[in-house]
Write a structure and sequence with these properties.
By secondary structure, this protein is an alpha+beta fold. It has helices at residues 21-30, 60-87, 95-103, 118-126; strands at 2-8, 13-18, 43-45, 89-92, 112-114. Among the domains are: 1-46; 80-126, no CATH class. It has four helices and five strands. The strands form two sheets. A three-stranded antiparallel beta sheet has the order 2-1-3. Strands 4-5 form a two-stranded parallel sheet. β1 (2-8) and β2 form a beta hairpin. The termini are far apart.
Length: 142
């Protein structure tokens, strides 16, 4: 397996695992690799720094990426939340009822977000209604 840092035409970078470089090239040409943030299939290999281990078995690259990972995750979660808030209708606590109305064709199909308990989410899922929980970030008191 080989790991590549991949970049889409919108500038988003993500990691991809491939059997070898030939498989990456084949999948890229077929449009099988898509950006997890925007769905763009116009991707290329991004420049990568080599991973060189120190004698202690730990590399500076690994140590730095471990420190940066939480910040990158938080930024991605914030981007997702901003996207949903911009492109979907907020329906508040009526989310379960509105999701059912959309699913059963009682109202025009649209993307919504709102509040639902885990029990309500479970019931929606049991009915075949696709729902996803938005990840949240801990509040910071800066």
């Amino acid at each position: 397996m080989i790991v590549y840092q991949v970049k889409c035409s919108n500038g988003h970078e993500f990691e991809g695992w491939f059997r070898n470089s030939g498989v990456f090239d084949q999948q890229r040409k077929r449009g099988d690799i898509d950006c997890p943030l925007c769905g763009d299939t116009e991707v290329s290999k991004a420049p990568m720094a080599p991973h060189v281990a120190r004698s202690s078995g730990r590399s500076d690259a690994t140590h730095e990426s471990t420190k940066e990972a939480p910040a990158q995750a938080a930024a991605t979660i914030a981007q997702l939340r901003t996207y949903v808030e911009k492109h979907c209708d907020y329906v508040g606590e009526s989310f379960p009822a509105e999701a059912r109305r959309i699913h059963y064709g009682e109202v025009e199909k649209r993307s919504i977000y709102g509040e639902a308990s885990s029990k309500e989410v479970s019931r929606l899922t049991d009915e075949g209604i696709e729902v996803h929980q938005l990840p949240t970030l801990p509040r910071r008191n800066d």
